Each structure stands twice: as C-alpha cells, then as structure tokens.
Amino acid sequence: xxxxxxxxxxxxxxxxxxxxxxxxxxxxxxxxxxxxxxxxxxxxxxxxxxxxxxxxxxxxxxxxxxxxxxxxxxxxxxxxxxxxxxxxxxxxxxxxxxxxxxxxxxxxxxxxxxxxxxxxxxxxxxxxxxxxxxxxxxxxxxxxxxxxxxxxxxxxxxxxxxxxxxxxxxxxxxxxxxxxxxxx
Amino acid sequence: xxxxxxxxxxxxxxxxxxxxxxxxxxxxxxxxxxxxxxxxxxxxxxxxxxxxxxxxxxxxxxxxxxxxxxxxxxxxxxxxxxxxxxxxxxxxxxxxxxxxxxxxxxxxxxxxxxxxxxxxxxxxxxxxxxxxxxxxxxxxxxxxxxxxxxxxxxxxxxxxxxxxx
Lengths: 184, 165
Known about the structure:
The structure holds two protein chains of two kinds. By secondary structure, chain A is mostly beta strands. Chain A is built from no helices and eleven strands. Chain A has a domain at about 45-170: Immunoglobulin-like (Sandwich). In chain A, a hairpin with a 7-residue loop joins strand 2 and strand 3 (about 65-75). By secondary structure, chain B is an alpha+beta fold. Chain B is built from six helices and nine strands. At the A-B interface, strand 5 and strand 6 of A face helix 2, helix 4 and helix 6 of B.
C-alpha cells in the first residue's frame, strides 16, 4: 500500500510499536525511541507488571484527554488495574469503547483484568482512561505524572508525554473488532 | 446521495446533496466531548489532507455533524473543528433532524445515556462515510482507518468523476 511507511507529522520515522506479547522490550512513549527502564519515565514496573508505551492524547479546547498504555504481566497471578491518578487532573475514568447496534459507546470500567502471563493494551477504540481537568490544559509537549493502581502489584508511577491525536495513528487497528465496519 | 439540510457553524442552511456535489465529501457524526474516536478520525484526516496537492485538496470536503447539539453550540463546534482544520464544516440541528439525516444513511438514531456523575455520554456511529464527486458511490471507513489508508484512497476517490454527457 502506498504510504504505508509514511513519516509522521513531525518527520520522525514512523516506528512500528513493538508487539508486547511475552516480550520485555518496550518503548518509552507513543512510538518514541526505546529507552531503558528507569524510575520516573514513561515506562515503569511494579512486581511482575511492566507498563510501557504510555501517551496522553492532548485536550482539544477544554474537552477530556485520553490516556493509553500497555501492561504486561510476567507473573503467575492475575492482576487488575483498579484506578488511575494523574497530576492536576480532576477525574481519571477507565473507559472501554464498545460497539452496540452499529453505535460506538464509552462505557465506564471499574477495573480491567491483566491476566497472568498476558498483555493488555489501551488503544483507541478499545480501552482508554479519560482525563478531565479544569485547572490545567494538557497540551502536546507536556509531561504528566500518572500513577496506575493495580490490585496486587500496587502502584506504578510514570511520566507520560502528551501527544497530538494524529500521533495515535500507529495505535490504530489494534482494537478488535473494528467499529463501524459497515452500514448497520 | 442523501438529501438533508442542517445548519452550519455560521448559521447558514447547508443542503448536503447540493454542497457535496462535485466534491469528495467525507461525512462523520460525532461530538466534541468524545475523547477516543471522533478526534482521532478528524486529526488523521487533517494531517493527510494537509499533505495533498492544493488542487486535489480543493476537491475534498469534510463535514462533521454533531450528535450532541445541546453542548455543541455553533461556537463550540467551530472552535473544536478549527483545532484540526478550519475548512472542516460543522453542522448542527435539532436531534430529530440529525436522526432523520442518519436514517437516510442507515445509521441508528442518537442515544444519550446519563451517568451517575451527572454527565452523559452520546453513542454515535464510528465510521467516516465518503461520497465520491459524482455522488454515485459511498464508501464507509471504519474506526481504525489509518493515515496511510486515507493517503492512498482519497486521491483515488476524488478522481471519480461524472462520466457521460
């Protein structure tokens, strides 16, 4: 397909995000350069959980932003994401986008299972964390302190970059099934 | 080609069938407080359209119809679309009129769901509907369509011209 390896809007090579299935190598942010694990980065861990590929799609005007990331569970026990805290953000709600009768909905999810030995990716059209804020604007180029709270493994602190919505392109097509795949 | 009339962000009536004639028209139903699907589609279209040759770009229209007319006033809609591309057309109207337009396209009516937080969410179709310039062909692009797909398809669709006398 023509343009399948187009460069992204800022002219960086469009890195394909690594598949996380059983692989410990991950990326620092939404398609950014791979980086080693270090505290206070967009990659983090707690116990057997590794969180990576975090990014926040910026607010358009005062509308909510959306947080995406990937979690890999290398342990023998199931875990679950039960909460999200983000600096300067009033509400952080875990949502899942579902298709119902030809219509896409955001549904609240009180928790998201992270199965033993498995990976879960928050991607557009799948899960996201909706961030609502009245006190600050989340604009591309900023970094936001985020804590992901898991039932067993505890809290993973991260510094997540804010990106443009167009930068989410490489995450598309990963939610399944595709929504709106034909006239309802 | 569906025939419906809604109001654009300048307050003028916008008759879709007339305005879409001879343009590749990309029609989408969504709302501005949507964080996950609507802004992704709009951002991807904006980025790809910006890279097209000027003459080709002039033959493509993006039309966004709000499914949340209570919150999406013309000013809100205009500001939100301007964040992507100021040429994007924003349309609004009473929910009954939006539903009538959606019915012409085989899209279920707008549904609003109240949430415990006092907020509400709006269900909406997730596909971008493309109408070729001759008005004869409709192509639905589901959510998940990537920039490379648009870059590949838009020039082809825009080139579909009326044939014959």
